[in-house]
Amino acid sequence: MSGGNAKDEASEGGSGPVLVTLDIDWAPDWIIEDIAERLSRAGVRATLFATHDSPAMRALAKEPLFEIGLHPNFLPGSSHGTTPDEIFATLRGWYPDGTACRTHSLVMSEPLLARMACEFGIEIDCSVHLPRASHVTPHELHLSEQGDSLIRLPHVFQDNMHAMARRPWTVAGAELDTPGWKVLNFHPVHIVLNSATLAVYETFKRRGPLSSLTRDDLPPVDASLPGTGSLFDTVLANLSKQRSFTVSERIALWKSGRQG
């Protein structure tokens, strides 16, 4: 995540842009506010993929530093609905302006992509995980003979999958200096827990539904140890010296041909 002296050059990390995204995953407002405060202090722009309506998310939707995307849950038992129409209607009711999407658990199919592009107003899909891949770029996927398409933008880092791979919690361990676009996917709960393994999260989750847990439920956290939170803070420290983008902002530049 090194870069040149010029702000625009630095934003490319010398090898492609680094974009911060977060899957909210029903985090309570106090966690969302904690993460938003870290991003605001660093002045780093980010895309937050929303799973639910909350005062914290509604407030962030008004802040220019943040983009609110959609994080629909298509799994059985979804609180968003039972059909794609119901699920997108639920999310659109809360966040009508969202045009970027990452599906919960990365559930995807060709028919679903087509409906996202043709019926639900989605312009960018971020539901592809290519861990530690290099030379990643966006690509346009055509989904109808009438010209409907969307941009697919893979992410190269996802905190829970990184824990499963037992990789070091460093820039080098996440291979964030490789050529190409580097979209990073963090979960707020793993940031506040500084999760290095999934065991601490599973213990935390047993205290009750995530959305109902309070700061008093949080176990002692050593932020100096390697983990999701420490890597997140390292990424923000690097990006605070550079020009940052939301997903939609950077894709707009890519489309215009000014960069990328």
Would you kindly provide a written description of the structure presented here, covering whatever features stand out?
The protein has a single domain (7-256), classed as Glycoside hydrolase/deacetylase (TIM Barrel), CATH 3.20.20. It has helices at residues 7-11, 29-42, 55-60, 84-94, 110-118, 159-165, 188-193, 199-205, 228-239, 247-256, and strands spanning 18-23, 46-50, 66-70, 100-101, 124-125, 139-142, 149-152, 157-158, 182-186. The radius of gyration is 18 Å and the shape is globular. It is 33% helix and 13% strand. The two termini are 17 Å apart. With 260 residues, it is of the alpha/beta class.
Query: Average pLDDT value?
Result: 92
Helix content: 25-40%
Order of neighbouring strands in the sheet with most strands: 3-2-1-9-8
CATH topology: TIM Barrel
Instruction: Give the N-to-C terminal Cα separation.
Output: 17 Å
Task: Name the CATH superfamily classification.
Answer: Glycoside hydrolase/deacetylase
Largest sheet: 5 strands, parallel
CATH class: Alpha Beta
> How many domains in all?
1
Overall spatial form: globular
Number of helices: 10
Order of helices and strands: HEHEHEHEHEEEEHEHHHH
- Fraction of residues in β-strands: 5-15%
CATH architecture annotation: Alpha-Beta Barrel
Secondary structural class: alpha/beta
* Rg from Cα: 18 Å
Oligomer: single chain
Q: Unreliable stretches, pLDDT < 50, 5 or more residues?
A: 2-13
Number of strands: 9
